[in-house]
Design goal:
Strand order of the largest sheet of chain B: 1-2
Oligomer: heterodimer
Radius of gyration of chain A: 17 Å
Keywords (chain A): ATP-binding, Nucleotide-binding, Transport
Radius of gyration of chain B: 26 Å
Number of helices of chain A: 8
Strand content of chain B: under 5%
Distance between the termini of chain B: 15 Å
InterPro entries (chain A): AAA+_ATPase, ABC_transporter-like_ATP-bd, ABC_Transporter_VariousFunc, P-loop_NTPase
Organism (chain A): Lacticaseibacillus jixianensis
Protein name (chain A): ATP-binding cassette domain-containing protein
Shape of chain A: globular
Number of helices of chain B: 16
Order of helices and strands of chain A: EEEHEEHEHHHEHEHEEH
Number of strands of chain B: 2
GO molecular function, one term (chain A): ATP binding
Largest sheet of chain A: 6 strands, mixed
Number of strands of chain A: 10
Helix content of chain B: 55-70%
Structural class of chain A: alpha/beta
């Protein structure tokens, strides 16, 4: 369980978040939704310690980021986007690396096969399309076997078939008890996969439970179009 | 840490900088060979000509002295000394009369006899106006220690039946070529400068390619990540230099022969006694010294890369530290006796090995210790920074 308590963040005199407190339970998928530039990625970076947060702000399964950083990070996986993949290394290199560093028991081959990555498993990242790179990212998340996964806009560049495939994987991970925080602009997908949705507005989070309502409508409620 | 090391190594193996740096080492070491390209090998003739020139100069001095009338006691003494000197030079001239077919043992015997005479004469009178043989590319010096070195070298060559290969030889065999390049022709500071370009590029790769966030979310101590990087630096950069030197050895060897790593280099560990170091021994000591110098700059680059995000800054910082290893800085009065405790006093590894540095020194072993101690302090400082902020 990820617990965030009174998280505030200021960047260059601009308040980005103010007194955020929330929890993400095991086996729960939480959507993180907001217009571009509102701070979704910043929040994910805060949750994994890439940006400074208060000493008692972040706790993951009882481990505080401050003081038990390595153990905290062992239970978490976050890769901002596919641009951060090592361009000259192969898919295999990436997956092997994640398996070794996270000491994961998840086997690579079945994951590669299930995601249909066999055709480019041995190719270097710079030779892959955006969709393929997104698959590599997803495979890395699965292989890390981390308890908490922070996933930033995973559906970018995917065709509808791949989007369905990704959603199935998210739900499988949820069934295994993993916690997922997924930032996304795809409101229909958010509606299909997330248990809760955090709408980020006015430096705070508005927690909306997913009861099957029209998520696009909720989005428009929080972020009405200009002139509407 | 093993996974991190392997990943960093794989990433770095693909870097174009490796090829550029290896090429730079190769070109630097081949510089002398390129400058002699197309020239006839006149080394032996030039050598023998130097003997003849010295002999003629002494003969002229003798004639001049004979013309001094009336001859004072000092003129008579000078004439006696010059006649003795000429005797030994004549022996060399005789021994080398056969030109290229001259017997090497006879030549060595004559040159050794002359060197011994010069040593005796200098020991007797340090101001004795000896006519030194002006070998091309080798500075002449009337110091007693230089006479001792001459005797040591020629005795070794005579005993081992080896032909003298001057530093300025047009086509020296490969062993001599590589050693001479590292000892005389390519400044150690220049070699280190090439290394620091590689290091600056290597230690800022993550920042440049935008992968620093990935590294910083790894569930491992970030000091281990830094140490893995340092390990890769050793795995790649030093072998790059070694391969370049090997390539030079092969290229030169195929054209000019391989030579012997048993060839002597004269040096003085204390400024009083002359000793012989063989080329092979010199290269082993050079490798050890180079590893120590490299360790220092690896640690320095790692430390600077923690506080500077771009390659240029790391490069400038390394270069500034490198410049403190230059003679004007180390020889300055401001440093005085403190210079010998600075790692930069030992960047000139050739001077360190042959004890020719113009500033105070703790000797070879002491220099290595100072360099490694400096590297350890820098690694410690880097570790402290990483420990405090938990990020690279």
């Amino acid at each position: 369980m990820l617990t965030v308590k009174d998280l505030s963040f200021t960047y260059k005199d601009q308040q980005i978040f103010q007194h955020l407190s929330f929890t993400v339970q095991d086996g729960e998928i939480v959507g993180l939704v907001a217009p571009n530039g509102t701070g979704k990625t910043t929040l994910l970076k805060l949750l994994c310690g890439l940006l400074p947060a208060g000493a008692d702000t972040l706790t993951l399964n009882g481990l505080k980021l401050h003081g038990k950083r390595i153990a905290y990070l062992k239970q978490l996986f976050f890769l901002e986007n596919s641009n951060q993949l090592y361009q000259d290394l192969t898919v295999r290199d990436h997956l092997t690396y994640v398996k070794e560093v996270w000491h994961s028991q998840v086997e690579i081959t079945p994951v590669v096969e299930s995601l249909g990555m066999g055709g480019y498993y041995k190719k270097v990242i710079k030779d892959l399309s955006l969709g393929m790179k997104q698959h590599v990212l997803l495979a890395m998340y699965i292989i890390s076997d981390a308890q908490t996964m922070l996933i930033d806009e995973p559906l970018n560049g995917l065709d509808p078939t791949s989007i369905q495939e990704f959603e199935e994987v998210f739900l499988q991970l949820k069934e295994k008890g993993k916690s997922l925080v997924i930032s996304s602009h795809q409101m229909d997908s958010v509606g299909r996969t997330c248990d809760h949705v955090f709408f980020l507005k006015d430096q705070t989070l508005h927690d909306v439970a997913n009861t099957g309502q029209d998520m696009m409508g909720v989005y428009n409620h929080f972020f009405p179009k200009a002139g509407a | 840490m093993g996974a991190q090391y392997r990943l960093t190594l794989k990433r770095s193996l693909h870097s174009v900088t490796n090829i550029v740096i290896a090429a730079a080492f190769f070109l630097l070491l081949m510089g002398t060979s390129f400058s002699h390209y197309g020239q006839l090998d006149t080394t032996q003739a030039t050598q023998y000509s130097a003997y003849a020139t010295a002999d003629e100069a002494v003969a002229k001095t003798i004639n001049d002295l004979k013309k001094v009338k009336p001859a004072s006691a000092s003129v008579k003494a000078a004439l006696k000394q010059k006649n003795q000197e000429k005797y030994y030079l004549d022996q060399i001239t005789l021994a080398t009369a056969g030109g290229l077919s001259a017997d090497v043992n006879e030549v060595n015997k004559a040159v050794l006899a002359h060197a011994k005479y010069s040593l005796r004469a200098t020991e007797k009178d340090p101001q004795v106006p000896l006519q030194l043989i002006k070998y091309q590319g080798k500075p002449t010096s009337h110091k007693l220690i230089e006479r001792k070195k001459d005797v040591a070298v020629y005795r070794y060559l005579y005993q081992h039946h080896m032909r003298e290969i001057p530093v300025a030889a047009v086509k020296p065999p490969a062993a001599n070529y590589v050693a001479n390049a590292l000892l005389y022709h390519v400044s150690p500071l220049l070699i280190i400068a090439v290394f620091i370009v590689w290091l600056a590029e290597f230690f800022t790769t993550d920042q440049r390619e935008g992968n620093l966030s990935v590294t910083n979310t790894l569930p491992m101590n970030k000091t281990k990540v830094l140490l893995a990087k340092m390990g890769v630096a050793f795995t790649l950069a030093l072998p790059l230099f070694g391969l370049s030197a090997l390539a030079v050895y092969l290229v030169v060897g195929l054209g000019a022969g391989w030579g012997s790593f048993q060839y002597p280099i004269a040096y003085s560990p204390d400024g009083q006694q002359a000793e012989i170091m063989l080329l092979g021994h010199f290269l082993v000591l050079l490798l050890s010294a180079l590893i120590a110098v490299f360790s220092f700059f690896v640690a320095l680059s790692a430390l600077v890369s923690l506080v500077a995000s771009d390659m240029g800054t790391v490069l400038v910082a390394d270069a500034l530290v490198l410049l403190t290893g230059s003679a004007p800085v180390l020889g300055s009065k401001a440093l005085s006796g403190a210079a010998k405790f600075l790692p930069s006093a030992y960047f000139d590894y050739s001077g360190l090995i042959l004890h020719t540095a113009a500033w105070p020194s703790l000797g070879y072993g002491g220099g290595i210790v100072v360099l490694l101690a400096g590297a350890s302090i820098l690694v410690g400082a880097a570790g402290l920074i990483v420990h405090r902020r938990q990020l690279l």
